[in-house]
């Protein structure tokens, strides 16, 4: 099995969260593979910017970790993605999805995003991250 370390962001703007629709029609959160020598926190910011076009984002706090397995037809072997997530805050609603791997995306009200998101662990991640984000915002704290 191929193990891939990844990092991503749960990006909020007020009471909205950013999600993407990929080429398989799955609604997901922005993330990507951690390149050799890079830190998870750096990769999360880079991948969020690359996939969403959001320029002015700030990391607020770690959000947790998830993992999933799938069979890669191109690699002809199983793959396990382990993802380190960060809660992020966008400073504007302006985004620009340029990647051809995504059909759609944007900021959605939390409940609408949770209904759209394909995978249950991502739904849970958004719920928990939103609670933590609001708590930190109310306390005027940023951990990272």
UniProtKB/TrEMBL annotation:
Pfam families: NUDIX. Gene3D superfamilies: Nucleoside Triphosphate Pyrophosphohydrolase (3.90.79.10). This is NUDIX domain-containing protein. InterPro entries: NUDIX_hydrolase-like_dom_sf (IPR015797), NUDIX_hydrolase_dom (IPR000086). Residues 2-138 form the Nudix hydrolase domain. Coiled coil: none annotated.
């Amino acid at each position: 099995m191929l193990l891939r370390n990844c990092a991503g962001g749960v990006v909020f703007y007020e009471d909205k969260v950013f999600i993407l629709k990929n080429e398989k029609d799955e609604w997901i959160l922005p993330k990507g593979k951690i390149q050799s020598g890079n830190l998870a926190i750096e990769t999360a910011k880079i991948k969020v910017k690359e996939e969403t076009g959001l320029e002015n984002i700030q990391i607020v706090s770690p959000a947790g970790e998830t993992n999933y397995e799938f069979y890669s037809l191109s690699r002809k072997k199983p793959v396990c993605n382990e993802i380190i997530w960060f809660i992020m805050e966008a400073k504007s609603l302006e985004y620009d999805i340029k990647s051809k791997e995504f059909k759609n995306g944007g900021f959605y009200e939390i409940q609408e995003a949770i209904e759209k998101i394909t995978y249950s662990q991502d739904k849970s991640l958004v719920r928990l991250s939103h609670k933590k984000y609001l708590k930190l915002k109310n306390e005027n704290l940023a951990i990272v």
